[in-house]
Design brief:
This protein is an all-beta fold and 829 residues long. It has no helices and 68 strands. Strands 12, 13, 15, 16 and 17 form a 5-stranded antiparallel sheet that branches. It is flat. It starts with 21 loop residues before the first strand and ends with a strand.
């Protein structure tokens, strides 16, 4: 390469040199004809080449580092790099690389490259720039308002950041929550209650993420408590409350609100509470968790009713009554009803239930002192008892007041049972003309100088320190009676009754007439007037008569001057012995006291029989068959007849069956026997007897017929019918003979006579058969037969040729035919 200069210039510019070249230069002076020789040579370097393909790689894991790289230039000059931004960073290249450190995060830098050699340097400003890794977000704040379910994460926004990524991680290690934003905040919905979350945010730009921001810790609001038990103890009136642990709670707030306006607040660090609440209110209980910054939602309410309040101002009314008393009190909060209890000194407890503030007993015990307590009640609890009140009951009315007279001493004693609650008794005696009384602390008094036959009334009234009880029921007493006078007796033979009469005295309760026999047997009657009848006198006896006047205390007896003779006794041990064969009955009996003659009667529906005898037996003859008889015997003396003896009943022999008839079914050998009945029979016996000694059968029936199908074929039977009543039997006048159907023929055999075209059929002898018939049936339905009366063979003639015949045999007698025998077959030719 050359360059020229003219005039006096001693320099020139050589264009088109290559960068980074090593050149030698010399000068030649040019003349008009000749040129000078070359000057001494000098060497020099052309300007260094600049790098190409310059790239900058930002370190995404370090806030201020980047690496610049390029393709090496020719002759590899010294390369230096300057990054200019908020800071200016110089870097000397090594091995075509330059490590830029100390850069600011999140800043954009302009690059300039300088290539230098020993003689010159060249600087070039790059048209492209680079941005370092984003800075970690600053001023990070989390806003989680109480009651909100959304946490808002916010930070200081930087313009170079393309995207922000927020993170929330719970302290319990659950799922990590993310949110993305191109602005300065993002939301985290659906965070779990009762957790502490760590919030961070990082910036993303040009493919690099910043460091996480400094963490921000914030707790979510506590979880809602869940009540699992809420009840009020009926005895202690304490609230028992428990709930499930709620996350995030440092303190539980419990609020109890009563329906009467009472409100109480409690704090608890545990999950249970025992507290006293005012009685008689319906409470709504809620539990709320308190966290470090927020309170949870209140729990669902639990409803508790405290026991009803204790009744107050208990006051008793109606003192000194026999069995009633009442109590009143002030109303109790929470009470639906009340129970009042009265406990006596005897330990008995009386309960009275009421829906109001008063209650009345009607079953208290007289003479007792009661302590009264009142309790209020609701559907579940009963309150503690109220303060007590006292009821004083009137002494009990004396019982079993008994006045008795001593007929020997003319002294009246009065006694009674001790009255509960009594300390003294006021005893009064009242008559039509006077009243006498005195007080005593004993339960018995004695009274003298009282008149006979008079009525006296005694009453006893109990008393104690507080009350006077009801008087006893009056005890009425009559004093001793006077003896009856003019006792007289008459005897009625027909009725066996004695009428006894006397002259009455006043003030008697009743009279008793007594009839005694010399055997010590007594019979009595009672009367309130001047006579009475003694029935059922002891028969056949000489009797003594007396009358006793009685009142409640004493008896006085007078005896009649004349006695009585009773009528003869009714016969006893009457018995009947029947003679069924002769149709008679022998009646006998035991002797009767006072009897000289006996009358025997036998009564039936058709006839009455009677007979007198001095003997102790009699035989009844010519009795009607199938009749029911009632036997009685009457004893007699010269004046009276006894009552009839007890009836003895018996049945005469039954009438014999009439018109006996038999019917035999030849095919089934079923026999039906029928007859006519006369009179009454308990049942009928039917005998069917095999005449050949093969046994027989007996049947009993209450009907007029019977049937049997168990007869043997080919047999002769005798039939008898007997009527049975009680222990007697009567047979029918005539027996009936029957002949059953012959037995089925057996052992059938046959042969053909080819000349005459007839068949010889033979069989075994059949029981009960008088004759036989052989039947032939051809296959063309043609028939032929033969009959024999004595033989067991028979020739069937005039058979058609060339046919197959079936042959069977039937046995018969004067009454029936048998079943056909089994068939045999023969083929004619």
């Amino acid at each position: 390469m050359t360059c020229q200069t003219v005039d006096e210039n001693t320099s020139c510019v050589v264009p088109g040199l290559m960068c980074g070249g090593h050149y030698y230069a010399w000068a030649i002076a040019l003349g008009e004809e000749y040129n000078s020789s070359e000057s001494n040579s000098v060497w020099f370097y052309s300007a260094p080449c600049l790098p190409t393909n310059v790239e900058v790689e930002v370190d995404c894991y370090s806030d201020g580092d980047a690496v610049a790289s390029w393709d090496p230039p020719y002759n590899a000059p010294n390369i230096s790099l300057t990054a200019s931004g908020s800071l200016q960073v110089y870097c000397q290249a090594e091995n075509n690389l330059c490590n830029l450190t100390g850069l600011g995060c999140g800043e954009t830098y302009n690059l300039s490259l300088t290539a230098s050699n020993s003689q010159c340097s060249v600087t070039k400003h790059m048209s492209s720039n680079f941005t370092t890794r984003p800075c970690k977000p600053q001023r990070v704040v989390v806003d989680l308002p109480c009651g909100s379910e959304i946490a808002v994460l916010s930070w200081e926004e930087r313009p170079e950041v393309e995207l922000y990524m927020g993170s929330a991680v719970s302290s319990s290690g659950g799922m990590e929550h993310w949110c993305n934003s191109t602005g300065s905040s993002c939301d985290f919905p659906g965070l779990s209650c009762g957790e502490t979350y760590t919030f961070t945010v990082k910036a993303l730009s040009r493919g690099c993420c910043s460091q996480h921001s400094d963490p921000v810790y914030i707790p979510t609001e506590p979880c809602q408590p869940v009540i699992v038990l809420a009840e009020a103890d009926c005895q202690t009136e304490e609230l028992q409350l428990s709930w499930l642990p709620a996350s995030g709670v440092v303190l539980y707030l419990i609020t109890a609100t009563g329906n009467l306006g009472y409100v109480e607040n409690y704090n608890a660090t545990e999950t249970n509470l025992t507290a006293s609440l005012p009685c008689g209110q319906n409470y709504s209980i809620i539990v709320q968790g308190r966290g470090s910054s927020c309170d949870s939602d209140p729990s669902s309410p639990a409803f508790v009713k405290t026991p009803p309040c204790i009744p107050h101002h208990v006051t008793t009314n109606e003192q000194c009554e026999a069995n009633t008393a009442s109590v009143i009190w002030g109303a109790s909060d929470g009470a639906k009803k009340y129970v009042a209890e009265a406990v006596g000194h005897d330990g008995h407890s009386h309960l009275c239930y009421s829906d109001y503030t008063n209650c009345t007993w009607d079953d208290l015990h007289c003479g007792d002192e009661y302590t009264v307590l009142v309790r209020s009640m609701d559907d579940y609890c009963t309150s503690l008892p109220s303060t007590s009140a006292v009821i004083y009951m009137a002494p009990c009315s004396p019982q079993n007041v008994l006045a008795s007279a001593d007929c020997e001493t003319n002294l009246v004693s009065l006694s009674w049972d001790a009255s509960n609650g009594s300390s003294t008794y006021h005893v009064s005696l009242e008559t039509e003309w006077q009243i006498v009384w005195h007080d005593t602390n004993d339960t018995k008094t004695y009274w003298s100088d009282l008149g006979c036959g008079a009525n006296y009334s005694f009453t006893v009234t109990p008393r104690n320190l507080y009350c006077t009880g009801m008087s006893s029921i009056p005890a009425i007493i009559q004093t001793w009676p006077c003896p009856p006078e003019g006792v007289y007796a008459m005897h009625d033979c027909l009725s066996g009754t004695a009428k006894i009469m006397w002259q009455p005295n006043s003030a008697m309760d009743h009279y008793t007439a007594i009839v005694d026999s010399h055997f010590g047997i007594s019979q009595t009657c009672m009367s309130y007037s001047d006579e009475c009848d003694v029935f059922g006198l002891t028969c056949g006896q000489n009797l003594t008569v007396s009358v006793t006047a009685s009142n409640r205390q004493c008896n006085v007896t007078s005896v009649a001057q004349h006695g009585l003779q009773s009528g003869p006794c009714s016969p006893t041990y009457v018995s009947v012995v029947k003679d069924c064969a002769n149709n008679t009955a022998a009646v006998s009996w035991s002797a009767s006291d006072g009897a000289s003659l006996y009358l025997v009667t036998a009564s039936s529906y058709h006839v009455n029989i009677s007979h007198q005898t001095s003997d102790l037996n009699y035989t009844l003859s010519d009795l009607m068959c199938s009749s029911h008889y009632a036997i009685q015997v009457v004893a007699m003396d010269d004046n009276c007849s006894s009552l009839p003896s007890q009836v003895v009943e018996f049945d005469s022999a039954p009438c014999p069956p009439q018109n006996v008839n038999t019917q035999l079914n030849c095919m089934s050998n079923n026999l039906t026997v029928s007859w006519d009945s006369f009179g009454y029979a308990d049942y009928y016996l039917v005998w069917v007897i095999d005449d050949n000694g093969g046994g027989g059968e007996a049947f009993n029936t209450t009907r007029n017929e019977c049937s049997t199908s168990y007869l043997n074929c080919g047999s002769s039977y005798t039939v008898q019918v007997t009527a049975v009543k009680g222990d007697c039997q009567t047979r029918s006048s005539f027996n009936h003979n029957i002949l059953t159907a012959p037995c089925q023929p057996q052992g059938i055999q046959g042969s053909l006579d080819c000349v005459t075209n007839s068949a010889w059929i033979s069989w075994s002898h059949t029981l009960g058969a008088d004759g036989y018939t052989v039947s032939a049936l051809g296959e063309d339905d043609s028939t032929a037969n033969c009959t024999t009366w004595t033989n067991t063979t028979c020739e069937v003639e005039d058979l058609a040729c060339g046919l197959l015949y079936s042959f069977s045999v039937i046995a018969k007698n004067s009454e029936c035919e048998s079943y056909p025998s089994t068939d045999i077959e023969l083929q004619t030719v």
